[in-house]
Amino acid sequence: MVAPYWLMKSGSARNKKLCGKNADIFTCSSRTTFPRHPENIRRDDAKLKFVFGTCALQALDLVDQRSVTCLSSPSGRKAFQVIGGSGRLYTCFLSCHYCPCPAFTYTVLRRNQGLLCKHILAVYLCQAMAVTQQESISDQQMSAVLSGTGGP
User: Fold this and answer.
1) Which has the closest alpha carbon to 81: 7, 129, 137, 42?
2) How far apart are CA 15 and CA 22, in angstroms?
3) Helix, strand, coil abundance in the chain, percent, nearest 5
4) Could you give the CA distance from residue 82 to residue 98 in angstroms, rounded to a whole number?
C-alpha cells in the first residue's frame, strides 16, 4: 500500500509543499501508523482523534459497520464505495484523494481546515486493518461508477 501524500516523511521538500504547516505532524508512513489488528486500532483511537479530530471516531464507526467496499475491475482500476452515516453511498478515489461528500468539499477543499473526511479516513483504516469488503466488477460497471452514472 502506498502511503497517502499527507503521511509522507516530513523531511522531504515535497512533503513541506503538500502538507504545509502540518508537515511535522505526519512523520510516519501508513505501514507504521495504523496497526494491522483491529484490537490495536482501538488503543490508538486517542491518537487518531488528536490528528484527525472528530472525523476519526466517525470513521471508526464506519469501519465497525463494514461500510467500505473496494470495487476492482479486470483492467486494474479501483474505487472505494463508502456507505455514510445517512445511508448515502459515496465513491471515494484514493489516487486523487477525493470524496464527493459535502464535508470534504466544505472542510477540505474550500476552508482548508482538514486533511480528509470520515469516508476517506475510513477507507485508509479499513485497508490498514485488512477489513475492506472486496467486490469485482466488469470494466463497463467500473466505467459507470467512475462517470457517476451508476454502480455495480
Assistant:
1) 137
2) 10
3) 45, 15, 40
4) 12
Q: Cell numbers 469488503 label which residue?
A: 133
Task: Give the C-alpha separation, 98 to 63, whole Å.
Answer: 18
Average pLDDT, the chain: 76
**Nine cell digits for residue 100:** 464527493
**Cβ-based burial of 40 (10 A; exposed 0-12, middle 13-18, buried ≥19):** exposed
Q: What is the pLDDT of residues 104-129, one digit of tens each?
A: 999 888 888 888 899 999 999 999 99
d(CA 146, CA 10) in angstroms, rounded, equals 32
For residue 131, pLDDT over 50 is answered with yes
